[in-house]
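Schema walk-through. Below, the input block comes first and the output block second. Nothing else is stored per chain. Lengths vary across the set, and this one has 144 residues.
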Amino acid sequence: MRMAHSRLIPSVFERTNPKHGTPGPAILLSVGLMLFGTAVLSFGHITGSDMYDLFGSLSVFGFLTAYSLVAIALPFARRARGHHSLLIPAASVLTVAVMVLIALYDLRSTSDATHARIPYIYLVYLAAGIGWSLVRRRNVQTDN
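--- output ---
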């Protein structure tokens, strides 16, 4: 729904139910994408527990990215509010370093070829998302 508000996907996905406020089209899109991914893996003879493991491992990189970006933004946000402290940038640098170390450890500790591919799958996924965002942003700017 938020992506539709930002014009990254069609505006139909920002519609909500007038009575309950639930974003029905966005929920259907999410469910459809999850069902499609699960079905593809299932037809590839991947078990449910393996899917859970693989998707969980993939999501770890998303959390590491989100935490790192928040840690990077924090000193700038604090400074913009007039709060000056050397502790905040130091904590941010330490946090990002820990996130990088966790990612490196995860890369080095993969036990099989499937798990070894997960960071690269995540990078492709991330690049595709950034690319899509840039294309949509350019299209939205030319429409205005």
